[in-house]
Each structure stands twice: as C-alpha cells, then as structure tokens.
Amino acid sequence: MMMMMFFSTRTLMLMFLLSSRHRAHGEDPDLMLTHYLIQMEISLRSVRDSTLTLTLLNLFLLLHGVSSDTEFEISVPTGVQMGVYGEAVHLSCVFPVSDSWDADRIMIMWQHNQEVVHSFFHGQDQPQYQSRRYANRTSLFHQEMKKGNASLRLDRTTLEDVGEYTCSVSTPLGWQRKSFPLKVAAFYYEPRLQISVLSDGHMEVLVTSEGGFPSPSLQWLMGNTRDVTNHTHTQLSKDHHTGLYSVNSKLILNGTVNSSITFIMKNPDLDQTIRRSIDLFSENGPIDQREQRAGPIVFSVVVVILLTVIISLIILQHQMMKKEKSRNPSESTIESSEALIHQTAAEKPLMDEAESVSELLDEGRSRARQLDKKKKCSLFIRIYLED
What we know:
Keywords: Cell membrane, Disulfide bond, Glycoprotein, Immunoglobulin domain, Membrane, Receptor, Signal, Transmembrane, Transmembrane helix. This protein is an alpha+beta fold. The chain has helices at 2-24, 29-44, 50-63, 289-326, 329-334, 336-375, and strands at residues 81-84, 89-91, 107-112, 115-121, 124-125, 138-140, 152-154, 163-171, 174-185, 192-197, 203-212, 217-222, 226-227, 232-238, 245-253, 259-267, 272-282, 379-386. The radius of gyration is 45 Å and the shape is rod-shaped. It starts with a helix and ends with a strand.
C-alpha cells in the first residue's frame, strides 16, 4: 500500500510539473491534463484498485479546476444492454454541452472492466491506448459529439465482449463516469428435420440447430396439446472457439404413423421462438404390426397345404398304376375303360381340392402383396412454419 501511495504521489508531482511547463509554453494545461490522466488510468489498471483510481482522478481534476459536480450529469443506460453476436451494438452515453464547443477540450474514454475500449482527446481518437482486442472494432459519432453524444459503436460483437462498460467524459463543465452491463446473445439457425424408420417399426424424429447463445429451452407436443418433452433425448454441445451452442433433440414414436408433432425452441434473451408443427401420415392409414406379421404366416401355411396335396396326388396315382399292373392282361383289356372311368371319378375330388388350394394360394399371395404394400406405403410429411 505504501508503494502504491508513493507511486501516486510521484505521479501527482509529475502532473504539477508538466502542467506548469505546458502553461509556460502557452499550452492549455487542462488539455495536457487529460493526456496524462489517460496514461495514469492505463498504468493503474495493473493495480486493479478502482477506488484509488477514481480518487486520484477526482483529485487531479479538482486541482486543475475541473469539477465532478452533480450539475454535470452524463446519461447511460440504466439496465442491461443486449448485443447480437456478430453484429454491431451501440452503447449510449450522453453528456451536457455549453454554447461554445471546443473538441480539443473534450476527453471521452470507454472501458470494459479493466480494458481501454476507446479513447478520444486532443480532438481525435487515440487508438494507441486501445486494447488490442478492440482494434478496428470501435468508433465514436464525431458529428454528434458537439450535441453531447459520446456513444460508442462496437462492431462484430463476440461473447468475450460481455461485461461492464464504463463511459468517462471530461469537459470544461465537469467530469463524470458511469457504468452499465452488456450481454451478448446469438440467434439459433433454422432447425433441420430428419425422420427415420427403425428396424423395430418405431419412428425417430430428430431436430438439430446450432449457432445460438445462451442455451435454449425445448418443448415437444403430441397433437399440439400433450407435452412429451420428458420422453425426448436432448444433447447440447458448445463450440470451444466461439462459445456458441449446438442442440439436437430426438423423439421416438411407436408404430402409429398418423400423428401430429409440435417442436418449440426458445431463446428468451432475444425473444426468439421457433415453432414447427409436423404432420405424419401414410396413404393407406396406420400400419398394424400384427397385420405385418400375418402376411408371411398366411403365405407359408398355404404353401405347406399345397405341397401336401400335390404329394398325396402323386402317391395315389403311383398306387393305382401299381394295382393295374398286378391284374392279368385279359381283365386289363376288358376293364381298362371302367378303370379309367373310376380313376377319373376318384381323382376329380382331389383335382377340385387342388384347384381350391391353388385359389387359396393366389388369395394368400394377393393378401401378402397388399400387406407388403401397406408396409412400404408412402410417408407424407407436412411441416407448418410458425415463427
């Protein structure tokens, strides 16, 4: 602490000497004071004692006739300011001015926590005192300065710009500094939809989006009324370079295809709400899993019955031919016609049965094709965009 006070006293003595020297050369001591105040402010940033810094600044300004009286009041936002990631943000700061305007006697300095964001004195910007992170990203409204506008434009905002900003203004009328917080948020991109049919007959609906900040709130609705968010699986990842989030949320549906789903994602910091309603339906209606399994079973049963009948006919025909050969030739000639008639009469019911089985087989094949067509029916997706 003693070392700090010694440093401050030595700086104070130097200020008086420099002020006297510049006054002797006909230069404006107040103008030179602002220059050294800036240098002292930057050097004291390493001390990180804002109370000491403010006290010294007030002391120097008071000694040189620059008062921080309450009559000199600057205006800054009273609440949290919001910036959009990658875009420009205006940080407002307004100060009172007199009828006589002299830009050479104005000092404006913007700080972010302990960093110098932008400084203006000697009638021009002083980028040499600026933190490297803000190079080529800041500007003042010089044409509006004579109207009391000390606002700062900060371009290409990032998440590193979040924090407290301080506007300091010194004029012949007085000096004051005020602070306010800045938040930065990013809009989420249009979600991507992916629908997959799983091997077990279930359906997976996957929604992904990225490039947003902070983390969003998600909600899934079934039929626009029933909340099924607790039945979803959501993953959130963060980019290590930008700090922005990516999100993917998955909902598993059962075998029912005809359904309406609503996906809602909100980014409250930017009042962003993305609402997507999805209608899923097939051209042949819902698919019953029991019907899907019934097709192959019916076809298999019909094939087995048909094979049984064919084998039975072959065996019967073979036995009848063997029986005919065992008879004598004379009886064979006489009774050949009758045997043929009886054989035809005996085979007719079997042929009728075979024909009936064949028809049953055709019917089974037709039903299997219909069920297979249902299984492979076209899936229609209707998506409603409701921003």
